[in-house]
């Protein structure tokens, strides 16, 4: 390393450490154990991206270090100015390779996952409506008839009518309303309709790999299929005000029989 300037040596060491930290950082498990069918596809997409981008990060830094090493050793004169063609090749080829591997690859890997989350309409899903309100989650099941009763924001009442249900609507009578509590059967697809009463919130259950915004004036929808029993955190993933951090709920995934029993125990809107 004799004649090389200290800054060249320092740069090579810096890039080596940076690369090592990046690789080790991503090798440490950082995701909660997945708990939904769709989540497996999301994980595959993330892993694919990390590996592809990771290979280029390592490769790029090795090449960079090699260039620094070569051009700092007094040998640069021997190489002269790089040709225009080499400049173009070094610019265009990596872009094209990244375009194919990263963009096309992600579309290929994540396309089916997107369809599953947003396009597919499963047979016999568990229907659920979740409304966000600073800083709480309101949950509604359609009850035995499988139909959500009529609701009107003007009738929303904090004490006994969180969804503003219509007293005279037959479909509303068997609706089940919960505060921050969701119970779901394992293995059955769940379709959630999401609404907000005020600002943008985001329905986030890390284990399901589900993170869907709730938009004012608009009902969004997300589908997922829980694959294992357990109790999971529901969080708001969109900074929605001072109490954002307190906007939490629980999702309990249980055996189908337990879910049916739970549904029967719940109070309905009609009482
Ligand atoms: Cu929120």
Please trace the helix and strand order, writing H or E for each element.
HHHHEEEEEEEEEEH
Specify the number of helices: 5
Q: Distance between termini? A: 83 Å
Spatial sequence of strands, sheet with the most strands:
3-2-1-5-8
Overall number of strands: 10
Strand proportion, as a percent range, falls in 15-25%
The main pleated sheet reads as: 5 strands, mixed
Total domain count: 2
> Could you tell me which ligands this complex binds, including any ions or cofactors?
copper (II) ion
Radius of gyration: 27 Å
CATH class of the largest domain: Mainly Beta
Return the structural class: alpha+beta
Give the rounded overall mean pLDDT. 89
Instruction: State the CATH superfamily name of the largest domain.
Output: Cupredoxins -  blue copper proteins
User: What is the CATH topology descriptor of the largest domain?
Assistant: Immunoglobulin-like
What is the general shape? elongated
Helix percent band:
25-40%
CATH-defined architecture of the largest domain: Sandwich
């Amino acid at each position: 390393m004799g004649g090389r300037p200290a800054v060249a040596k320092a740069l090579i060491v810096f890039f080596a450490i940076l690369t090592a930290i990046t690789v080790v950082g991503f090798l440490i498990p950082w995701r909660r154990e997945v708990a939904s069918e769709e989540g497996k596809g999301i994980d595959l997409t993330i892993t694919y991206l990390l590996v592809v981008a990771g290979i280029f990060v390592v490769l790029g830094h090795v090449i960079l270090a090699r260039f620094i090493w070569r051009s700092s050793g007094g040998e640069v004169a021997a190489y002269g100015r790089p040709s225009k063609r080499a400049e173009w090749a070094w610019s265009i080829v990596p872009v094209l390779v990244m375009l194919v591997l990263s963009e096309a690859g992600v579309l290929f890997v994540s396309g089916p996952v997107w369809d599953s989350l947003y396009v597919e309409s499963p047979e016999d899903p568990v229907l659920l409506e979740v409304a966000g309100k600073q800083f709480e989650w309101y949950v509604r099941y359609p009850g035995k008839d499988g139909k959500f009763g009529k609701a009107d924001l003007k009738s929303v009442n904090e004490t006994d009518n969180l969804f503003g249900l219509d007293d005279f609507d037959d479909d509303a009578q068997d609706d089940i309303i919960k505060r921050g509590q969701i119970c779901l059967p394992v293995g059955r697809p769940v379709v959630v309709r999401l609404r907000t009463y005020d600002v943008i919130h985001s329905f986030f259950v890390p284990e399901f790999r589900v993170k869907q915004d709730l938009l004012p004036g608009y009902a969004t929808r997300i589908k997922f299929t829980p694959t294992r029993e357990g109790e999971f955190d529901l969080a708001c993933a969109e900074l929605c005000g001072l109490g954002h951090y307190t906007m939490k709920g629980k999702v309990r995934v249980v055996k189908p029989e337990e879910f049916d029993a739970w549904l029967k125990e719940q109070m309905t809107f009609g009482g």
